[in-house]
Amino acid sequence: MTTNQELAAWVKTVAALTQPDRIHWCDGSPEEHGRLIDEMLASGTLIKLNERTHPNCFLHRSDPSDVARVEHLTYICTQNEDDAGSNNNWMDPAEARAKMEQLFAGCMRGRTMYVIPYLMGPYGSPYARAGVEITDSPYVVANMRVMARIGKRSLEHIESGKTFVKGLHSIGDLNPDRRFIMHFPEELMIQSVGSGYGGNALLGKKCHALRIASWQARTEGWLAEHMLLLGIQDPDGHTSYVAAAFPSACGKTNLAMLSPPETMKGWKVWTVGDDIAWMHIGPDGRLWAINPEAGFFGVAPGTSLKTNANCMNTLGRDTIYTNVAMTPDGEPWWEGLDGERPAKLIDWQGRPYDPANGPAAHPNSRFTVAASQCPSYSDKANAPEGVPISAIIFGGRRSTVAPLVFEAMDWEHGVFAGAAVASETTAAAVGAVGQVRRDSMAMKPFCGYHFGDYWNHWLSFQTRTSKLPRVFHVNWFRKDENGKFMWPGYGENMRVLKWIVERCNGKAGAARTPIGFVPGPGDIDVSGLGIGEEVLRALLAIDHDVWEHETTDIAAYFASFGERVPAALKQQLARIRAEIDAQRAA
Ligand code: O2Y
Ligand code: MN
Fold it and tell me: How many CB atoms lie within 10 A of CB 187?
């Protein structure tokens, strides 16, 4: 089935271990997809949704115990434990292999083993990387077909002699006690068992494009980041590209597909990606980014015409929904969708909706849809060379502390701001609400190696080019003393993006503060927004006492990573503290 000896031998070994009834090499064709869909409809794996309102859309209900990524069961298996860092769970590679071999033994009996060659990144891009996922889940094949570029062309890429990541996945028996997601970055290998859901099973996404790729990127001098990519077109028709990293529940997909407010005539946002960016220093010394993915695996609850019209207009057709609710007419439904809640809903577990059972759609219910269906999809999204990045934006959900926006003083300070990213937990995640969690560069669950080494890698870019992007930090979630959000967010975030682009072009004002360059109330365009100067001042305020506490917290966080923390980041911390103290004393 392939001329690549290494791939052929690996598939043979996996088949001998897992004992499938059949082996199917995926070619990615529409005929193959049609057959798989028919099989899944027949087996009940998929439910057809209303063909008139949602053509070619399907609903999948996962096992109720298998509804999200499982960080506590996700491991980085490096020879040296220290290389994984305290930001990861570590397991000795030999122990992990032995454990997985037991779990994989005979696991595909009675099933078909699908071999999915895939490419992450545009065809013909020097930055694209290949992988092969072996899975016993037709649902995974259907999702991978949307999220990556699967089939013949990707196999040809591998057969031309390029390296590829080997990913072995089985749903196993879906027992959480026998669920593990193992990464072997030194061997470019992933093994996942016991889950059929999202990031645990679609191995091209978080496992390959972030955990394995971040390791490769460090070795090879590039960046694999948990970032959305968007183009911001100004009224003169010039487009600047930005990459932005936010921890979960901060509205990444909404920002990636932002619709500017009516008042901002001539401004437009183009979507390049909503989750992952691979960035390389290009021949011109600038940072160029590609989106390795081809689709969106977005969270459904909260998505509406009001919060994300482009997303809603992406979803009408050819979409796989997972764990959403269903109306009696066979339409998908979730909390936060426009309009009233319909009567007689079927909840995400297939039961008549009863509020006593919780929400109708699972809070982590998802849609899988091709990025090309998005009305704001950039015509540069498939450019082999990627898009040139003018600004990198970090952000978090902070009800206090972080101002609406600030610009870092320089690259080193920008890396510090990224390393210090923190976000308050929301009801969407398990655990207490409102707790501040550090999540450096939003990569805590996804960096495939020690955070100290990762920050050093980021810093190293300043020695390799003088054309690095400017770095910013945003916070859409600051609250007033009554606990009310002060900034309207969503489309109005365009006003902050405008300030960022204008800073990059040397056109917008800001004041130097200990934590960075912060706009004055007159520097951000709030015309027609109904926000008074007092509120704007509060949104941009830096409280010295609060920041004193923040720096103490960051110092403790850095200390938890030991010796490998770069001196440059500790110096940034010391500088900020000294400047705050000096201002206090003045
Ligand atoms: O729960 C999952 O498996 C999905 S997690 C996810 C999906 C799409 C984009 N980002 C994420 C994330 O957790 O960052
Ligand atoms: Mn993500």
Answer: 13
Q: At residue 126, what is the residue type?
A: P
Let me know if 349 is exposed, middle or buried by CB neighbors in 10 A (0-12, 13-18, 19+): middle
Q: Is the CB of 301 under 6 A from ligand 1?
A: no
Q: Catalytic residue numbers? A: 250
Residue with tokens 């919780």: 358
Report domain 295-373's class.
Answer: mainly beta
Dihedral of CA atoms 466, 467, 468, 470 in degrees, nearest 10, equals 110
Residue 63 main-chain phi, psi, to 5 deg: -60, 135
Q: Are 312 and 303 spatial neighbours (Cβ–Cβ below 8 Å)?
A: yes
* pTM for the full predicted model: 0.98
Q: 360-410, pLDDT tens digit by residue?
A: 999 999 999 999 999 999 999 999 999 999 999 999 999 999 999 999 999
CA-proximal residue: ligand 1, atom 13 (nearest): 248
Domain residues of the chain, as ranges? 5-45+70-221, 225-294+379-582, 295-373
Dihedral angle over CA of 209, 212, 215, 219, nearest 10 = -90
pLDDT digits (tens, 9 = 90+) for 299-339: 999 999 999 999 999 999 999 999 999 999 999 999 999 99
Ordered alpha helix ranges (H), 135-197? 138-147, 152-159
Instruction: Give CA 434 to chain center in angstroms.
Output: 22
Q: Is there a contact between 53 and 329 (Cβ–Cβ < 8 Å)?
A: yes
198 Cα–ligand 2 center, Å:
11
E strands present in 402-492? 405-407, 422-424, 436-438, 470-474
* Protein residue closest via CA to atom 14 of ligand 1: 248
With both helix axes pointing from N to C terminus, report the angle between 213-220 and 451-460 in degrees, rounded to the nearest 10: 40
Tokens representing 351? 């039961």
Asked if 112 contacts 96 with a C-beta cutoff of 8 angstroms, the reply is no
Query: What superfamily would CATH give domain 5-45+70-221?
Result: Phosphoenolpyruvate Carboxykinase, domain 1 (3.40.449.10)
By the 10 Å C-beta count (0-12 exposed, 13-18 middle, 19+ buried), 161 is classed as exposed
Which amino acid, residue 124? G
Closest CA to ligand 1's atom 5: 199
> Measuring CA to CA, which residue among 241, 262, 247 is closest to residue 475?
247
Tell me the C-alpha distance between 317 and 370, whole Å: 10
Distance CA 180, CA 193 (A): 6
Residues linked to residue 516 through DSSP beta bridges, in sequence order: 513
**Distance from the alpha carbon of residue 275 to the mean position of ligand 2, in angstroms:** 5
CATH of region 225-294+379-582, choose from 3.40.50.410, 3.90.228.20, 3.30.565.10, 3.40.50.261? 3.90.228.20
